[in-house]
Recover the amino acids of this structure.
């Protein structure tokens, strides 16, 4: 049973929040801070278990391999995949989508096939599809958004056809926190014989993910959005799809036998994990999952919602401030202030030790559709408190008075 929620006790687990520079951290949609237990996991690996995996005959590599594969099973259970063979380690969401594009996309796409991609996407879920479309003769088709920064579902159904082979959408978007109706999108894709690729980077820390219930063909996410290290990510794929795909990267570990006459490749997941992996990152991700599962998820959700409401009330007191695409229950708030450049706001906030994100958020098409060059984005995580919001609002008022 999880312990009762206490924001003070939770914050105490994050050493970065108590550093001497005393930064008010409101940029968790970009990267979350790490709890001490995850940091300890990384330290323990490098102090006591540092070895390569799946090769060598000494006890260090044996123990490292057991821990590494156990981490894969922990991820499988966390997202309710059928088998740990459906879990592919990657460097993050970006590499995972590139892997899908360069294996499934290259293997299946033909001239005039269509890839439906939403206008709300991070570049990581657009550029790989543009590249593979150029190489295969397929076409990337935009699913436009509404003025409220939600997906235009009427337009989606108008564009969906038997030519559609892939539907690629974010579970939750990174600019406004829009929660796309992925259940409906996945079912609609399957109805025309297409597959669905879901970018779960912004959802993984906030929703309980069950890939079998969703019936997602591919679901991808990054560790550094969910309280674990950077440089580790996950590609979930249905086993039948993965078994049918050729490798992408070549090298060690992804082979059965190599000769100059030819190479036979390993089964999944090893087929897609060439070279020395990020063992520490995998262990850190598994540790972060254990940490998340030890928390009261519902209490954290309520806590973030209360902070969001407090932030909205404070922002409402700022002259000429417009919130962009405000979404219900989102942990992300993007805004602009008429007559003031977003980077100037972020710079003056930084000078007051407030960390937010400003710019186009790697989502040029969305910002272009809104007629904006960028926004200021604050994003909340479990460890934020009311003082963070009060400090931010006071600093924003000061910044506006200077500008």
């Amino acid at each position: 049973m999880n312990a009762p929620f206490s924001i003070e006790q939770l914050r105490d687990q994050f050493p970065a929040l108590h550093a001497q520079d005393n930064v008010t951290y409101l940029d968790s949609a970009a990267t979350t801070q790490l709890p001490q237990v995850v940091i300890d996991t990384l330290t323990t690996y490098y102090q006591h278990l540092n070895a390569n995996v799946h090769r060598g005959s000494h006890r260090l590599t044996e123990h490292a391999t057991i821990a590494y594969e156990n981490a894969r099973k922990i991820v499988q259970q966390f997202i309710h995949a059928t088998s740990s063979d459906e879990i592919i380690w990657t460097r993050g969401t970006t590499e995972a989508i590139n892997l899908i594009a360069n294996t499934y996309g290259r293997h299946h796409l033909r001239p005039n096939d269509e890839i439906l991609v939403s206008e709300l996407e991070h570049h990581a879920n657009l550029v790989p599809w543009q590249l593979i479309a150029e190489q295969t003769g397929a076409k990337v088709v935009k699913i436009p958004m509404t003025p409220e920064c939600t997906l235009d579902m009427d337009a989606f159904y108008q564009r969906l056809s038997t030519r559609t082979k892939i539907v690629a959408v974010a579970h939750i978007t990174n600019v406004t926190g829009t929660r796309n109706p992925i259940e409906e999108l996945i079912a609609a894709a399957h109805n025309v014989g297409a597959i669905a690729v879901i970018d779960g980077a912004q959802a993984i820390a906030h929703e309980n993910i069950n890939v079998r219930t969703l019936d997602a063909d591919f679901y991808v996410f990054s560790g550094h959005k969910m309280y674990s290290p950077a440089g580790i990510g996950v590609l979930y794929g249905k086993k039948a799809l993965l078994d049918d795909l050729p490798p992408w990267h070549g090298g060690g570990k992804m082979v059965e036998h190599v000769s100059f006459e030819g190479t036979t490749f390993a089964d999944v997941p090893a087929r897609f994990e060439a070279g020395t992996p990020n063992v520490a990152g995998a262990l850190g991700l598994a540790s972060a999952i254990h940490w998340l599962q030890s928390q009261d998820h519902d209490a954290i959700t309520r806590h973030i919602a209360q902070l969001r409401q407090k932030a909205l009330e404070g922002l409402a007191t700022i002259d000429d401030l417009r919130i962009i695409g405000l979404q219900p229950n989102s942990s992300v708030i993007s805004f602009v202030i008429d007559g003031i450049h977003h980077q100037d706001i972020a710079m003056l906030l930084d000078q007051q030790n407030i960390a937010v994100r400003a710019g186009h958020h790697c989502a040029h098409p969305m910002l272009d559709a809104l007629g904006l060059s960028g926004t200021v984005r604050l994003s909340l995580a479990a460890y934020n408190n009311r003082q963070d919001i009060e400090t931010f609002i006071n600093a924003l008022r000061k910044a506006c008075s200077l500008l």
User: Anything to note?
Assistant: The longest helix spans residues 59-79.
